[in-house]
Amino acid sequence: MTRRLARYLDGNEEFWSRLWNLRRPRRHARLCDLEDEDDEEHDIPGYQESKALVSSKWKVYVAGVFLLAAIVLPRKTSTLKGEVSLEIRPGSRVLLDAHNCYPYHGKWSDRIERALGTRVPLAIEQDLFWYTDKQSGKSWSMLSHGKPVSGNEPTLRTYFFERIRPIVEKALRDGNQGDWPLVTLNLDFKSNEPEHHADVWALLGEYESWLCTAERVEDSHQVMPLLVRPLWVLTGDSDAQEITFHHLVPVGQRLRVFGAVHVRGDDPAVPPETMVWERASNYRRWWNNPWRVVEKGGQRKAKDWTKEDMQRLRLLVDHAHALGLWIRFYTLNGYGPAESQGWDEDYNFGSKERVLLRWRAALEAGVDFVATDQYEAFASAKAARLTP
Q1: Is 48 exposed, middle or buried (0-12, 13-18, 19+ CB in 10 A)?
Q2: Do the strands 214-215 and 254-255 form a parallel or antiparallel pair, or are they unpaired?
Q3: What is the rounded average pLDDT of the residues 212-222?
């Protein structure tokens, strides 16, 4: 970007001419609107001598200011009712993604406390299952990985939304400090009934003032700017979800949740360009991956971490970001048999030392969301890497 900007500024005479018009003496201002070839400005005594003062040092100074603004300052975008919102971009930060952050069968109910204890910003995954009570016939969405269920499982409203209410309301009072969204909610639907989707859509509507949203437009390939707020909601790649969360939303209304792209292949031999071939759309803005796309066979069959593995990880991340997509990898754990808290053994590298190598690689590569069940350990590894 630095070289492109330098070339643009060095060879763009129109840019420098317009800039000169902004800084020249007031007595020349009336000539700003002259566009004909016989511009009278050039006949003003002393003008050419004054213009010669635009030296190479001045150009270097201005180029530096433009470059600093491009790199350091977040872009601002127009939003609702004339508000201004700081834009968020893929690759700007690496977040803990608290995998399966809800109780299992009445156990480990402190998962959301553990996740929030690592401090925001972070991502939190919630699995949703559509349950129907056989006696009453009533149905509702609950937090569960699937059957068997008892009907006593917590809901997204009680376990997640009301728990983060103090955090979000304080953030809204204080304003965006450059770290919004504070929480990215990753919804993993374990059942995809249309009524399930409709129920969750209605729930999100109750909390819409908390949510990052974007305008629904006719052309889905037109990526509209996000109105950035403390909570961003993501969901999967299901076409059935897209119907409720995008197609049925009237043009001009706001999208409350954003889907993942479709992917071809889940083997390290598949080129990134084959796996995902289209840029982000207005609805589909992220890419979700099992770790087996990096290391063949996934966590249980992973061998020593190599330079080739790191290169593969970088290729996937760079390709995602070039397409305007956030990218997530799941689920990177490493622990002994006595340390498990209901975690899936298929995600276990077998030791903390082995998973640390992958966490550090993900941090270095710029993975947007690193899913793990070991919330505190990942947060410590991230903090250690960021500490000089």
Answers
A1: exposed
A2: antiparallel
A3: 98
- Residue 176: phi and psi, rounded to 5, are -70, 120
Last residue of a domain, one of 23, 39, 72: 72
Residue 142 contacts residue 191 (beta carbons within 8 Å): no
CA 361 to chain centre: 19
The answer to whether the predicted template modeling score (pTM) of the entire model surpasses 0.85 is: no
If asked whether residues 135 and 211 sit together in one domain, one would say yes
Counting the structural domains of the chain, the total is 2
CA-to-CA distance for 319 and 293, rounded, in angstroms? 14
pLDDT digits over 155-175, tens only? 999 999 999 999 999 999 999
* 65 and 87 assigned to the same domain: no
Burial of 167 (0-12, 13-18, 19+ CB in 10 A): middle
CA–chain centroid gap for 182, Å, is: 11
Range of the domain at 183: 79-386
326, exposed or middle or buried, with CB in 10 Å at 0-12, 13-18, 19+?
Answer: buried
- At residue 24 the predicted structure's pLDDT band, cuts being 50, 70 and 90, is very low
